[in-house]
Structure formats: C-alpha cells, structure tokens
Amino acid sequence: MIDDRQKAERLARAIISDIKLYNDEKVAQLKAAASFGAVLAGLRDELAEGRAIFDSRVAPPLRTVFDEVVKEMLGSLWLES
Predict the structure, then answer these.
(1) What is the DSSP string of 69-81?
(2) Three-class SS state of 23
(3) 5-56 confidence digits (pLDDT tens)
C-alpha cells in the first residue's frame, strides 16, 4: 500500500497518462470541448477504472491525490493545441 504522497502522485500521473495514450482518438475529440466538465464526462468510464486501480494501491488518506492529478493533467486539455 502506497503511503507516500510523491509515490501516489507518480502512480496517478502514470494512470492518467495511460488513459490519454490508450484513448487518443477520444482525447483528440475532447480537445474541442468547451469545459473541464465535458472532458471529465467524455472520459468517465476510463477515469472510474483508473480511480479503482489507484484506490486499490494507495492508502485512504492519499486518495484525493488522484483528483488533484486529474485536474492538473486534464484540466486544460481543451486548451492544448
């Protein structure tokens, strides 16, 4: 069980990176989305699966790290060129 914040952040980044990589076509379509909510909705199933993996490996006090990394990595997705 991961109980170190930096390790939890690394795991979350790896999961989000994989989501972006393996859903490249969907991510490309979401780049035109008008809001962060649209990005989250478009990747809902993938993020739920990623969260389940993250939660199974990280101590409960660090589980909010996943949300922080999602906001960091996907929050400006629609602004990327």
Answers:
(1) HHHHHHTTGGG--
(2) coil
(3) 999 999 999 999 999 899 888 877 777 766 677 777 888 999 999 999 999 9
